[in-house]
From TrEMBL:
Its cofactor is a divalent metal cation. GO terms for molecular function: nucleoside triphosphate diphosphatase activity. Pfam families: Maf (PF02545). InterPro entries: ITPase-like_fam, Maf-like. The lineage of its organism: unclassified sequences, metagenomes, ecological metagenomes. Keywords: Hydrolase. This is Maf-like protein YhdE. Gene3D superfamilies: 3.90.950.10. It comes from mine drainage metagenome.
Length: 194
């Protein structure tokens, strides 16, 4: 019998991506301080947050670690070395989209697997090229409400997918859970056979 996989996330996209590869999960969000440390590189930042989310979830389970498997992830959009988190409001979303318009940026997603008292983290990095956006496109997108809970103020799996000219890396990583890396991590430790 496979152990229960706990997902330390509220993201419906992550649940859908796990289901896509035949895995059910129990949602157990982890609330942690997501402030980036001074001089912390974006890659180190997402790895740290994924690991801390997994640890917080394990602590919430408050039982023998051997009995639980926790999967956590964190995604960030990076433009010229600067992390673009979730927008504070509509104006913040517009500013981020203007900054991303017509150029390339990186999306880092770290996935942490906690089990048997240990945690392993993998990092997926994707380069995303976005078309040049008009103010009307940005305004209509912000009005749709889609940017509100998304790093960098856009979701590749939604309306903004029409703006993405090219990616180099993992499409599902940009969505928030790189399926290949996640499945490989679960397989490596015997928690999945896909």
């Amino acid at each position: 019998m496979q152990p229960t996989i706990y997902l330390a996330s509220r993201s419906p996209r992550r649940v859908e991506l796990l289901q896509q590869i035949g895995l059910a999960c129990v949602i157990l969000p982890a609330d942690i301080d997501e402030t980036q440390a001074q001089y912390e590189l974006p890659e180190d930042y997402v790895v740290r947050l994924a690991k801390q989310k997994a640890e917080a979830c394990m602590q919430r389970l408050n039982a023998v670690p051997m009995a639980h498997v926790v999967l956590a992830a964190d995604t960030t959009v990076v433009l010229a070395g600067e992390v673009l988190g979730k927008p504070l409001d509509d104006d913040d979303a517009r500013n981020m989209l203007r900054a991303l318009s017509g150029g390339s940026h990186q999306v880092h997603t770290a996935v942490a697997l906690a089990f048997a008292g240990s945690i392993e983290v993998v990092l997926s990095t994707t380069i995303v090229e976005m078309m040049a956006l008009s103010e009307a496109q940005i305004d209509a997108y912000v009005a749709s409400g889609e940017p509100h809970d998304k790093a960098g103020s856009y979701g590749i799996q939604g309306l903004a997918g029409a703006w993405i000219k090219r990616i180099e890396g993992s499409y599902t990583g940009v969505m928030g859970l790189p399926v290949y890396e996640t499945a490989a991590l679960l397989r490596k430790h015997g928690f999945a056979h896909l």
